[in-house]
């Protein structure tokens, strides 16, 4: 019975979770005078409002809305959690190679690409969807285009809040774009196997190919 209630109220619960962590991080930003992440929080509130409006007309899937909420939480956590003097965003998951910041950029465009597929696939001509390589390139370009908007947002933080040291220089910006691209490409691969999963499973099991 509890499980049925949770399933029925899943969207409301996601919204409550999102509002709760936004409120907590906003208070933390005020207490510590972290106006850079207060700026990010305000932008996230605007984004959440946009997603709510979009969801009313398009009805985004549970996976997408939940993933976007978790992504927002992980983003704010990265800028507010410290291990001694090391900010979580600067912490290396793989020493010297892969930082938490790189992970968030990859995850962000991964989720964005899946969301874009959900939004545009019904409006794309069947001929293009059958040529999946071209469709995938379109999705990647759209996703990294949205990712570049994030970099523009960070550039405002650099100018207004003097966040150059925390945001990073040109090399960090280039890495962000690379990991955005990697995350988006991985998403298109997952989408391909999701679309063609019956054929893919048949090939794994050694079943003969059938002509459609």
Task: Itemize the secondary structure elements and their pairings.
Blueprint: H1 2-8, H2 10-32, H3 35-58, H4 62-80, E1 82-83, E2 86-87, E3 92-94, E4 98-99, H5 100-120, H6 126-130, H7 132-161, H8 164-167, H9 170-195, H10 197-205
Antiparallel strand pairs: 1-2, 3-4
Any descriptors?
212 residues; mainly alpha; two-stranded antiparallel sheet; 10 helices; 4 strands; globular
Give a verbal description of the structure.
With 212 residues, the protein is mainly alpha-helical. The chain contains ten helices and four strands. It has helices at residues 2-8, 10-32, 35-58, 62-80, 100-120, 126-130, 132-161, 164-167, 170-195, 197-205; strands at 82-83, 86-87, 92-94, 98-99. The strands form two sheets. It has a two-stranded antiparallel sheet with strand order 1-2. Strands 3-4 form a two-stranded antiparallel ribbon. A hairpin with a 3-residue loop joins strand 3 (92-94) and strand 4 (98-99). Helix 4 (62-80) packs antiparallel against helix 5, helix 5 crosses helix 9 and helix 7 (132-161) packs antiparallel against helix 9 (170-195). The longest helix is centred in the last third of the chain and has 30 residues, at 132-161. It is globular. The protein starts with a helix and ends in a 7-residue tail after the last helix.
Rg result? 20 Å
* Unreliable sequence segments: none
H/E topology pattern: HHHHEEEEHHHHHH
Across the major sheet, the strand order is 1-2
Total beta-strand segments: 4
Would you tell me the overall average pLDDT? Answer: 81
Given the structure, what is the number of helices?
10
| Rough outline | globular
Question: Termini distance?
Answer: 44 Å
Oligomer: single chain
Structural class: mainly alpha
Strand percentage lies at: under 5%
């Amino acid at each position: 019975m509890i499980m049925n209630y949770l399933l029925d109220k899943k969207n409301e619960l996601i919204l409550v979770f999102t509002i709760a962590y936004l409120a907590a991080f906003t208070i933390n930003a005020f207490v510590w005078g972290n106006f850079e992440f207060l700026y990010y929080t305000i932008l996230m509130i605007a984004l959440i409002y946009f997603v709510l409006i979009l969801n009313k007309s398009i009805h985004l899937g549970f996976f997408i809305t939940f993933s976007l909420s978790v992504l927002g939480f992980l983003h704010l956590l990265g800028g507010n959690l410290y291990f001694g003097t090391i900010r979580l965003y600067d912490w290396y998951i793989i020493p010297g190679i892969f930082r938490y910041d790189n992970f968030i950029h990859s995850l962000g465009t991964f989720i964005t690409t899946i969301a874009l597929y959900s939004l545009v696939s019904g409006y794309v001509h069947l001929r293009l969807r059958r040529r999946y390589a071209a469709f995938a390139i379109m999705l990647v370009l759209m996703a990294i285009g949205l990712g570049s908007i994030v970099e523009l947002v960070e550039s405002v933080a650099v100018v207004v809040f003097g966040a150059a040291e925390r945001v990073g220089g040109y090399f960090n910006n280039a890495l962000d774009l690379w990991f955005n691209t990697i995350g988006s490409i991985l998403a298109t691969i997952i989408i391909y196997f999701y679309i063609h999963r019956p054929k893919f499973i048949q090939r794994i099991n050694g079943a003969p190919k059938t002509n459609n």
